[in-house]
Amino acid sequence: MTKRKIILGEYLEFEKGISVPRDRLFITNNIAYLHYGDIYKIYNHVVDINKEIDNILKISTDEKYKKTQLLKDGDIVYNLTSESVDDLGKAVYIRNPNNISFVSGMETTIMRVTDKSILLPEYLNYILSTYKFKCLLRQYVTGMKVYRVHPRDIGRIEIEVPDINEQKKIIDILNPFNDKIELNNQMNQTLEEIASLLYKRWFVDFEFPDDKGNPYKSSGGEMVDSELGMIPKGWEVKKLGEIELIITDFVSNGSFASLKANTKIYKEENYAVFVRNTDLKSGKFETYVDEKTYQFLSKSKLLGGEIIISNVGDVGSVFLCPRINKKMTLGNNVILVKSQESKIYWNYYLYIFLKSSLGKALLESITSGSAQMKFNKTDFKKLKFIAPNFNTLEEFNKIFDKNIFLQNNYKAENTKLQTMKKELLKELI
Asked: Distance between CA atoms of 83 and 63, rounded to whole angstroms?
């Protein structure tokens, strides 16, 4: 396959995203808004605004922007900053055939291909995700805690591209992988919504089944007063630190000096997966440790099913660790919460609770910082919540366990698909 070398800046135009504060972002309004954080958290490879219009953030028409900042069909939105060098440069391809008013946020740049007879935007988007391109990008990365790259430097990078017909063939091979991954993500989102609705009915509305199978509160179930309001008789208000939980993190394994000396991180596959916040968001587990490091990090080994919460930077993201049939250990800037082996029934309940609006509000209440937002384990353990009785938790677990089984299957399939796509990218691009 014959390829030609091109310098990206000769075939691309760049446009800045617009800056809108969080307090001016809405669920319903006039103009769709692609937040740079959502590119990491939510989207895999493509943003189809026709499908996402009801879910994506919005801004008012009063916000100032240029016509050139409106996202067009075939644009690429590229993240210019990241907390990790390896994660820098997440990009998504924009599908907007109906020209819906749509903009991207700060810390992003819009890439527009100027000559589609030489370079197809969708093909370029695949190039941007390759390890080879990431290596070329590294020479232009700046920053210490937050890493960034400038669009002019992206424009300096030289790549090799085949002819247009070959680019189309490669796109046709790779797109079905993304379509299937997206479908699986949608199925998991539906399962999450079902779990949240069940949680609300049982633990917020208190309509869990009573001894006769009837909704507890509306059937006259006895309610008692507590410091968090009226709760079912037999339930309690407790602090997280008062129940049978293990709460730990990466740094519990030793001092910063010993962690630095005994921890080696790899981008190539190795003995165990190093599970980070960004991996849980993307569903891609591509950071590893060797066996020696894995054994050193013995206090934060993962089996799957544990609650993982980001407590530095992107504070408050809550995940249930997937079961991926690989050895796993906890990454940095997150904390691990799990039930003690004899009290496993807490995991699912606390996972949904911490993801709920109340749980998010409680996490925000203990978060502080100027340059970097964070909270600590001590304050986390002091958070109060409503603790249901054992029987109710057990019944909830029986139902939710089936939900999690299906979610893990979809996640496992996506992991396989991501691996296959990665290998194909090496071969095709």
From this structure: 28
